[in-house]
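Input/output pair, single chain:
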Amino acid sequence: MTESVLCRKIYGMRMYVAFSVMSVVCLSMLGCQKSDTITVDTSREISESRIVTKKRPADKEEKTKLGIKFTRITKVHEYDSAPAFSPDGTKIAYASYQNDAQNIWIIDSEGKEEPKRITHTATLDNRPTWSADGKSIIFSSTKLNDNAGSKLYIVNSNGTNLRQLDKGVDGYSPSCSPLDEQIVFVSQNNLRIIKGVDDKEPNYITTKGYQDYPCWMDNAKKVLFFCDDDLHLININERSTTRLTDTAWNSFPSVSFKTNKIAFVSNRGGNYDLWVMSGDGTNLVQITNDKYNELYPCFSSDGSKIAFQSDKSGNFDIWVVELPENI
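Output:
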């Protein structure tokens, strides 16, 4: 089973949680090779109720012997996914599947306040990304029981002024540049870029194969993305590509512009764990190492934290890890 099939099943099926876990487990059967890396042992048994219809206990934190602290941010629903830090690091936008629909929500980055629902449509909204000024959120949305492709939408961070971007373009997995108004996204399995929300002529930067999960890198001169089970980097102007990983399966990249670090998910250690590496693909550090599944990491703007999706609690919730300065 390919990575694209996994994500489409996770995204589109009614029994969201069950199929998500089953898909990830099936992928783990692909096997992997171990490499010379620094491993941070973050295994820890979590004992708590898996009843999703009741409010769970307040803050749930884990701390490793090396001082890496994990904090569970969302605690109520079955499937919360695709977290995205706001530019100032105080909020996290994410997608939450509830009542046969998936909408965009916002919560404070410490998980101390009640989350606020931003979209209220009977659709499957996914992969939110913040505009550089923090005033808007761009995301992809698919109509329920509709074979039409995903479209890109924008909404103010307070939930007002929801509108569709270029209506003639299918698009998903958007990523806003933290430096300007550019947006890279996926359309018909390839990467496209628009110069801003009002741009009606998106340009392709790839034209062959299957690419997904793009994010900006190197002062918005390059785009990091998933292709052929690995992470690749493309120079926008030169259209030249570099392969950064070549072991097992690696996906869901996120880049810190401040530290030039890359967070991603890999099964090279046997499970779908969170890893961090330098911008050139060296200095790998394993952040999680347990039986659970991590997906969709996202760096905070200062590079000190990573928000991610994990089923540590029995459901897929949003977690945040605080990184030591030496990682």
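The longest helix spans residues 16-28. Residues 23 and 227 are 19 Å apart (CA to CA).
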